[in-house]
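User: Let's play a game. I give you a shape written as tokens, and you guess the letters that built it. Ready? Here's round one.
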């Protein structure tokens, strides 16, 4: 059980504190953030960007949240594009590019990743032709 500081208690006594309920438990954004190990501003920003509480509770802590993104549904599961990128092992920029180019979610998520490799130049030195 965690101990509450004087600042925590003052925070809960304020009347403008937004309370959130998940699985029958109601806490402030600050308390949820403390429980999840997140900065309260990060949690508030994710909520402002349209994340659901269920997604907040299961998402990795290190997702970049500077872009407002709606959740994308794929194979009966709904989450933000950053989370899909992590799950699918595809670079987020690649997924964004595919979706912006007009590909469907199915196409963007299942198309193989192309790797661009430079041919190796054995024994060639630019100083000695």
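Assistant: Ready! My guess for every position:
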């Amino acid at each position: 059980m965690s101990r509450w500081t004087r600042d925590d208690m003052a925070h809960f006594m304020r009347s403008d504190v937004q309370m959130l309920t998940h699985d029958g438990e109601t806490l402030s954004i600050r308390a949820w953030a403390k429980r999840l190990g997140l900065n309260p501003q990060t949690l508030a920003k994710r909520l402002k960007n349209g994340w659901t509480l269920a997604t907040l509770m299961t998402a990795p802590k290190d997702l970049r949240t500077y872009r407002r993104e709606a959740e994308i549904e794929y194979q009966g599961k709904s989450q933000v594009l950053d989370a899909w990128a992590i799950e699918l092992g595809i670079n987020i920029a690649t997924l964004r590019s595919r979706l912006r180019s007009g590909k469907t979610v199915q196409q963007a998520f299942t198309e193989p990743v192309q790797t661009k490799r430079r041919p190796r130049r054995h024994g060639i030195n630019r100083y000695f032709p």
